[in-house]
């Protein structure tokens, strides 16, 4: 796997990311990308067929012809305000698992996107500013660890 320094940085920051469970992203993210593996996970969770899952919960993605999107977003239909959390947490899509630093579109970017509305991202920014050099230059052992973590998080097929 060929990753650039910023990929190593974003994987490391995502691994250490501590979500505040404020629910902002669940209420504003639109579209919410749905990959084939997400559909299989949702189908299993809801005990539906793949076709039923696609019909019930997804729509064509507005800009990515190869994937789908959640049918209801901004706010996501699965966000529960009373518990400030996700009603389908074990079956949440990959983009939710990888948010905010490792969504597929970010891999390979020569830089790192910080979501200013996300309070936990602002904390990550402080860590990035403090430890920029080591984060961009992990030793070979850490590189392997980060590559393994990325493969685990980014299973999309
Ligand atoms: S906006 Fe950030 S802190 Fe809030 S729920 Fe989303 S990822 Fe967590
Ligand atoms: S599926 Fe869950 S984690 Fe993902 S946006 Fe909806 S409520 Fe948030």
Q: Can you give a write-up of this model?
A:
The chain has 157 residues and is mainly α. The chain has two domains: 1-17 and 100-152, no CATH class; 20-88, no CATH class. It has helices spanning 5-15, 24-28, 36-46, 50-57, 94-98, 119-136, 140-153, and strands at 33-34, 58-60, 68-70, 79-80, 85-86. A three-stranded antiparallel β-sheet has the order 1-3-2. It has a two-stranded antiparallel sheet with strand order 4-5. Strand 4 (79-80) and strand 5 (85-86) form a beta hairpin. The longest helix is centred in the C-terminal third of the chain and has 18 residues, at 119-136. The protein is globular and about 45 Å long. The mean pLDDT is 92. Bound molecules: iron/sulfur cluster (SF4) (2 copies). One iron/sulfur cluster is lined by residues 26, 29, 32, 76, 78-79, 86, 88, 92-93, 96. One iron/sulfur cluster binds next to helix 2 and helix 6.
Summarize the structure.
The chain is mainly α.
Helix content: 40-55%
Shape: globular
Q: Trace the largest sheet across and list its strands.
A: 1-3-2
Describe the biggest sheet? 3 strands, antiparallel
Distance between the termini: 17 Å
Order of helices and strands: HHEHHEEEEHHH
Main traits of this protein?
46% helix, mainly alpha, 7 helices, two-stranded antiparallel ribbon, 157 residues, 2 domains, three-stranded antiparallel β-sheet, binds iron/sulfur cluster
């Amino acid at each position: 796997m060929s990753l650039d320094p910023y990929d190593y940085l974003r994987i490391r920051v995502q691994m250490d990311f501590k979500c505040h469970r404020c629910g902002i992203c669940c209420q504003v993210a639109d579209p919410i990308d749905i990959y084939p593996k997400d559909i299989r996970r949702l189908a299993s969770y809801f005990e539906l067929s793949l076709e039923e899952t696609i019909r019930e919960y997804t729509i064509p993605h507005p800009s990515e012809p190869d994937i789908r999107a959640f049918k209801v977003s901004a706010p996501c239909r699965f966000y529960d305000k009373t518990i400030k959390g996700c009603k389908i947490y074990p079956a949440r899509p990959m983009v939710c698992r990888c948010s905010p630093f490792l969504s597929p579109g970010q891999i390979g970017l020569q830089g790192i996107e910080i979501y200013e509305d996300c309070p936990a991202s602002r904390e990550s920014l402080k860590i990035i500013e403090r430890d920029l050099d080591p984060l961009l230059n992990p030793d070979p052992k850490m590189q392997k660890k980060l590559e393994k973590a990325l493969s685990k998080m980014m299973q999309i097929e």
